[in-house]
Amino acid sequence: MSETCDVAHGTAPADPGVRTLVAVFASPVSRFLLKFAKDLGYHVALFEPDPARVTDVPEGFEADTALPPLDASADVVVTDHHRPELGAVLKAALEGKPRWVGVLGNPRHPGPHVAALQGLGVAEDDIARVHRPVGLNIGSRTPPEIALATLAGLVADRNNRPGGFDFT
Question: Structurally, what CATH architecture does the domain formed by 23-158 represent?
Answer without folding.
Answer: 3-Layer(aba) Sandwich (3.40)
